[in-house]
From TrEMBL:
<dbReference type="InterPro" id="IPR037126">
    <property type="entry name" value="PdaC/RsiV-like_sf"/>
</dbReference>
<protein>
    <submittedName>
        <fullName>Ferritin</fullName>
    </submittedName>
</protein>
<keyword id="KW-0732">Signal</keyword>
<feature type="domain" description="DUF3298">
    <location>
        <begin position="143"/>
        <end position="223"/>
    </location>
</feature>
<feature type="signal peptide">
    <location>
        <begin position="1"/>
        <end position="19"/>
    </location>
</feature>
<dbReference type="InterPro" id="IPR021729">
    <property type="entry name" value="DUF3298"/>
</dbReference>
<dbReference type="Pfam" id="PF11738">
    <property type="entry name" value="DUF3298"/>
</dbReference>
Amino acid sequence: MIRLFLLWSLLTTLTFSFGMDTEVVYQENTRYRIEGRIPKFVDKDNSARELSDALRLVNREIQGNFTEIKREVISSALEFGEEFPNSNLLPFTLKSTYVFPGNSKLPLASFLIETIYYTGGAHPIKIYKGYTVDTYTYYSLDTFFKSPEEARKYMVERIEERIEENLKNSQLGREEKIYFDNARVDLDDAAFYFRDNKFVFLFQSYAIAPYSSGNPEFTFTFSELREFLHNKWTGI
């Protein structure tokens, strides 16, 4: 394994009491190929000794998720390889990486983990997971709102309006159809993170659209959601 230290100043203009280390994982044989860039928060001494409980939790969750799916891919590859050793579907693959978008105004760090794996079938599966943190807090979507239920209801309705508009336009031949006719919007089916100072919801494959449509994305500004936000976030 190779450990690469990334200075936090390269990721954000804000000053936090932590940085980030990247564990690079690569395993390959005739039955599977594993590639991972696994982020890990560290303190300024490039260790995890002085991290807050929130950042330790994020580290454990990220490592645990990668380890679990790696185990599943390897197990599936070995089992399939025993039964079909000459199959052109081998090797099964897993690739995981992460991206930090720009958030110049936000006093927090937000990033997206992309995991792509193939265990046979027509195409690979993509899974996205968003993380938003500061030195002491691991933020969920609901922590930003005074009334999470009302905020979620508003956002779901706006997304459904955009889906309905696309479906109507596709029937009139104005644009390509993107979504399922019976698409049901659940924000928990999306990766939540921030990009360009906006709330971003990146939906998983098949949640509201076929694989050919990719992973639909919807954004909301802080201004649009101001009436639902806790006071500390209304000035952004």
